[in-house]
């Protein structure tokens, strides 16, 4: 098939052949139907979700970390699913079912999807096992109702999500009690943690525990794949490709799926994002093995002597579109080619249980992927992808998949495969049903991979949610476990609705060399010497620049805000002021360290001595106490909790959370430490929110806080996480016309920020703001900038005083470059 075909092959567990070729996102296809259970549910906020992947939606490249990809989604009936997959940019839960395979990153390569239904108990167990891999959890959602979510708040899910666990030994295997709801039943899950030495999960763990020789599919050559292991009775051989799925040949370099089968007596098939390369051996890994002789026989015939298996179904989406085959129970060959999201296909039917349920908020869901919806590139971290979804009847499923940008649980079943990132590459889907006990065990295993959980939901069906609130799910969701040359500047047309309005925005993209945005751009454009606040010492901060008339000096800290001293190491804020004639203040996430200079950066400079008609909030460390500047005041206000109702952050964000029509807002949120992430991403440190309404205005909130804001939560939970409250942070909010917000988006894009959440307003079919070139390039990473820096003009003004804000942007370059250059 060509790269635009979007075809897939589906295999039902127990089936003797793949289903006919079909588009993977067709309504009748299993991936579509599975994910549509969430997208079309009508109450998506009532699902517990953990998504992990090292190439989440909107990420521009794959993160060099654990490759696990999957989704855990649990409902309120004590059940859910685990979707393990190998697709990039999948799933985008902020989109629609029709968008899941619309992105070229998803469609380009072949990928495998394995979806399994489990009880919430088993989903928690799975989360506990996955946690060994240290997957990149890029989206998590706790069900909005009821208040108590036993599944999501469980230790297993919390450990997986928050990365609080440190595992010894370095690997884990599920017991026989982790069984899916329907045949085949037992699914053997292996997970290994990243260690200081290279460790091949197949030769070190899988063959030894299963006591069987294995043939492992890793597309490549004998020079790129680890040597086969032929010593002893337990051997590991390599399947190098190309392979043929049903009647379609998948060439080397076109497939993201990695699977394996026993060399003889093949009674099961294993799916993973990890193959047998030197790079694979550096990171954590998860391997899910499904017991099915029919599926194993298919894979042996399909590729030399190997086969693959899944609980309810195994889906293989072909590269370049949505066509797929699947294996049905009792059949010995793949189903005919069909669209993966067609209504009669297993992914569609599985996900549609959530999306079309009418009470989506009654599902516990954990979706994880390192290429979640809305990410511009794949995160250089754990590539695990899957969904655990558990209902209230002590059961659920685990859908493991390899698709990028999938699933977007904020969309519908019809949009699951609408994104080109999802449809571009081939992908595998393995769905297995489990009891909630086993889903919890799975969650525990998944957590080893440190997956990127990008979506979670705690069931709202009842206050007590033992599955979601279990330690396994909570650790998976909350990351409680610990394991071993371009730039832009805003132009003069970026103006606020009322006078005076200008904010100057500088942004730089990550490049192959170090680039200090202050010394390279800001001082040169503003023609003023700067003093830059970077907490540290003379040995940790870049040297001051004292040559010439434009100088850069370092403010090392500690500092005192109002009456509170903020020590070095307690502050995420980075700001700067002119050395003389201080008529503006600049805010950024980037300081002047060697590490800062490696990534893109954004600096926003507000030209105003009074800082009127906007608010600048400084949250103090170790809690929620804060000061803010009111218009025309010459001093900070008295200390108060930052989330109190009368405080500016609360009142600003409450306009969204308390509106009753949240879906009618256009939103772009970006950060290198988004909610549910276990650690700070080593990329552009920019953090902010652009929110636009339907009357041609909105605001830009720049901040330096970690884990903020969680758009899947409420106003009351904005500052509930200790990652947000631990350190001091700064917040700068400015109102703009939509024209200027678009200009700001164009400048921000120079920095290559990590966009972790987007929403297109549902108020009207036409959305000129969200669909504009500026916003689409920011969200989808379509722009390549020259030159390497830019600065906003005088026309970029806020709606009210102070007016002028100067914005600088520099791109990452191949050499060290300070923004002051």
Automatic annotation (TrEMBL):
GO terms for molecular function: deoxyribonuclease II activity. The keyword Signal applies. Keywords: Hydrolase, Signal. The keyword Hydrolase applies. It holds the Pfam family DNase_II. One of its GO terms (biological process) is apoptotic DNA fragmentation. Residues 1-22 form the signal peptide. InterPro entries: DNase_II. It comes from the Eukaryota. Belongs to the DNase II family. This is Deoxyribonuclease-2-alpha. It comes from Trichinella nativa.
